[in-house]
Specification:
Blueprint (H helix, E strand, L loop, with lengths): L2 H29 L8 H16 L3 H5 L2 E8 L10 H11 L5 E13 L2 E13 L6 E15 L2 E11 L4
Length: about 160
């Protein structure tokens, strides 16, 4: 073999190896299991988990359901909460009323494999810690969830008392 023939053979071999590697990677990626979009039922269950965390009376457990960079526009406070300490502080006070939430109407939008929005209306039964008197607070809400790692977290939560109540 002369030098030109050897160079051509080396180039052909290198090209074939690169092509084979590219095809192998492509087939591996195509065969890999892609994350699936969550179902509306799975997203609806995130509220149920949040509501159950309220029942523990532990503000840190409730706040753990929020991302570190979450924004909370709470129902019974004018202060916007934008970090774990502020969110925990809100729930320190809110949980004194032993809130129990119940969804009335929910509209869930699955945005992609890792994000979804649940918006609608709900109410809370709150118990006055001094008198034991119960009252119902009707509100509208929006929860925006993101899957971070393997965990679904609240990244935005807006809740406001119904204007016509």
């Amino acid at each position: 073999m002369n030098r030109k023939t050897r160079i051509r053979a080396a180039l052909v071999t290198a090209t074939a190896l690169v092509t084979a590697a590219t095809v192998t990677v492509g087939v591996s990626a195509a065969g890999a299991e892609q994350p699936k979009k969550p179902t509306k039922k799975q997203i609806a269950a995130l509220f149920d988990g949040w509501n159950k965390s309220l029942q523990t009376g532990d503000s840190k457990k409730v706040a753990a359901r929020y991302a570190k960079d979450a924004v909370l526009l709470p129902t019974v406070s004018n202060k916007i909460r934008t970090n774990p300490a502020a969110i925990t502080d809100y729930f320190d006070h809110f949980l004194e009323n032993k809130p129990v939430g119940k969804k009335i109407k929910s509209y869930i939008n699955i945005l992609d494999n890792n994000s979804a929005i649940d918006a609608g209306s709900y109410y809370f039964i709150l118990t006055d810690p001094k008198t034991g008197e119960k009252r119902r607070v009707d509100a509208r809400y929006t929860y925006e969830y993101e899957k971070r790692g393997s965990q679904w977290l609240i990244v935005n939560h807006h809740s406001s008392v119904m204007p016509e109540g």
